[in-house]
Design brief:
alpha+beta, Nuclear Transport Factor 2, Chain: A
Length: 148
């Protein structure tokens, strides 16, 4: 009887395994880091290569609905901002479920931009999709606030 219960429990765990989240794939996190490095280094083309064509970027109540929208609207300012400020990550979590991954980060950005001081607590969530070409960012949500 005891063996039968153990066998049933093991079968249930194995049956559920495909739907459980897998440990985070370091490749997805590397793409997020490469995106930020590209912005900091002023390499707009490298930043864009991390994004899916259908990426949606939400920031402070605004949205860009595609990579082309981001490239023509917000990307140049993001490159300038990243070059002018210093960002550090204070926490990160990541996970993969099938061909989707999320990377959530908390951080702090300091410095000066366009003559104004910057001192912000930052929150970022990126969702990535595994493609034949590797991980691509399909959604970004950024928000920030002044430290308390």
């Amino acid at each position: 009887m005891k063996m039968r219960l153990i066998s049933c429990a093991a079968a249930l765990v194995l049956a559920a395994a495909p739907v459980l989240a897998a440990p985070a794939d370091a490749g997805a996190e590397r793409v997020v880091d490469a995106f930020h490095d590209a912005l900091t280094n002023g390499d707009a083309a490298a930043a864009l290569s991390c994004l899916d064509d259908t990426v949606q970027i939400y920031e402070q109540g605004w949205v860009e609905h595609t990579k082309a929208d981001y490239a023509s609207a917000h990307l140049p300012a993001d490159v300038k901002f990243a070059a002018a400020t210093k960002s550090s990550r204070t926490a990160r979590s990541a996970d993969v479920v099938g061909d989707l991954a999320y990377v959530s980060s908390e951080g702090r950005t300091t410095g000066s931009f366009e003559g104004k001081p910057v001192n912000s607590i930052t929150l970022e969530t990126m969702i990535l999709r595994r493609t034949d070409s590797g991980w691509r960012i399909v959604h970004i949500h950024w928000s920030s606030r002044k430290p308390s």
